């Protein structure tokens, strides 16, 4: 039996995938979770052969959890599900020990095939997502500039960006000038759109 | 048999739902499509009892297609699948003859139950989505103002917004002033965020 741990936040997709994967005679979904919070505990209780995790959950602490899962469960392969606009997160996920990527535009049979290949020790990378990742423009911004832009992205004025980041308003304005110069954007909104489109905030 | 036409753009979800719904002995997914383009043709070929359609497809021409489906197939109930952030589109969809709404945070068994209720002639509205729709702030903007803001949302300067909408730059600036005044936003980016968050662009 191939034991699968499925972590997907959209209940409808998670439920339908659990039912679909369970149709395979040698597949067993040993746990399905909406967040990574209890993934380590579940994996300790019933060690899975494959963890299937939505890439959206790898923002913030998610990458740490996946790294720990890899360290604790060296026999468990990790497969990430990713949408077409998530190449930023995906690039960061691939720096970790991720064994496979399947796109949400794949058919369920492709996910089934990917899981089987992973269990055989192969690596699985969705071709259309790979193209998107390779062609996505890399960020020219420093981590600090990206941070300033991500706070400004909510639409708050520079004074509030400054307050939130414990900077002076003048410093925030200097960062914004550098951001516009480096990205070639003509205004703050255009810079935000560029960063969102390229996945730099993820 | 309950014949289902499923129209969902995410291949993985569509495939998994088709497999899951087909597990019900009295359900038959007579067609599954990624767009509404061929939905009318498919419905004419094999009249469905229920059309399950992702709300994202109702933007633009989608509402017209659904209205025509309702007119051509009076015995076919329409059920919309919607995510938690799509109350704007959902509000517009409900002005049409939509018989049911199920959220993407529902479990597959809730979708199954919703389809059965629709076939019995009941109306099905996801409670958590209804709350989001009722509490979402209504747009204070005129259609023209909303149009100006939606073009500006890409980050292009007023001169380009003016060129695209065949207006003078001064007129666009006047619209932007009215937009900031009516929404209470402190700048263009904040106005765009407000409109996106409330679903006014959908």
From TrEMBL, chains A, B:
<dbReference type="InterPro" id="IPR039420">
    <property type="entry name" value="WalR-like"/>
</dbReference>
<keyword id="KW-0597">Phosphoprotein</keyword>
<dbReference type="GO" id="GO:0000160">
    <property type="term" value="P:phosphorelay signal transduction system"/>
</dbReference>
<feature type="domain" description="HTH luxR-type">
    <location>
        <begin position="134"/>
        <end position="199"/>
    </location>
</feature>
<dbReference type="GO" id="GO:0006355">
    <property type="term" value="P:regulation of DNA-templated transcription"/>
</dbReference>
<dbReference type="InterPro" id="IPR000792">
    <property type="entry name" value="Tscrpt_reg_LuxR_C"/>
</dbReference>
<dbReference type="GO" id="GO:0003677">
    <property type="term" value="F:DNA binding"/>
</dbReference>
<dbReference type="InterPro" id="IPR016032">
    <property type="entry name" value="Sig_transdc_resp-reg_C-effctor"/>
</dbReference>
<dbReference type="InterPro" id="IPR001789">
    <property type="entry name" value="Sig_transdc_resp-reg_receiver"/>
</dbReference>
<keyword id="KW-0238">DNA-binding</keyword>
<feature type="domain" description="Response regulatory">
    <location>
        <begin position="3"/>
        <end position="119"/>
    </location>
</feature>
<dbReference type="Pfam" id="PF00196">
    <property type="entry name" value="GerE"/>
</dbReference>
<dbReference type="Pfam" id="PF00072">
    <property type="entry name" value="Response_reg"/>
</dbReference>
<dbReference type="InterPro" id="IPR011006">
    <property type="entry name" value="CheY-like_superfamily"/>
</dbReference>
<dbReference type="InterPro" id="IPR058245">
    <property type="entry name" value="NreC/VraR/RcsB-like_REC"/>
</dbReference>
<protein>
    <submittedName>
        <fullName>DNA-binding response regulator</fullName>
    </submittedName>
</protein>
């Amino acid at each position: 039996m191939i034991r699968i741990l499925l972590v997907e936040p959209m209940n409808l997709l998670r439920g339908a995938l659990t039912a679909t994967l369970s149709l395979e005679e040698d597949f067993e979904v040993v746990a399905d979770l909406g967040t990574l919070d209890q993934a380590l505990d579940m994996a300790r209780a019933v060690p899975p052969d494959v963890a299937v995790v939505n890439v959206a959950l790898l923002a913030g602490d998610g990458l740490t959890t996946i790294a720990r899962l890899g360290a604790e469960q060296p026999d468990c392969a990790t497969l990430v599900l990713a949408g077409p606009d998530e190449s930023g997160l995906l690039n960061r996920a691939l720096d970790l020990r991720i064994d496979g990527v399947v796109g949400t535009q794949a058919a369920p049979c492709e996910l089934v095939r990917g899981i089987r290949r992973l269990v055989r020790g192969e690596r699985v990378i969705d071709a259309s997502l790979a193209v998107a990742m390779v062609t996505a423009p890399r960020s020219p911004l420093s981590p600090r500039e990206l941070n300033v832009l991500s706070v400004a992205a909510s639409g708050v004025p520079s004074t509030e960006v400054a307050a939130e980041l414990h900077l002076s308003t003048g410093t925030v304005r200097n960062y914004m000038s550098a951001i516009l110069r480096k990205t070639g954007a003509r205004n703050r909104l255009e810079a935000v759109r560029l960063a969102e489109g390229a996945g730099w905030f993820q």
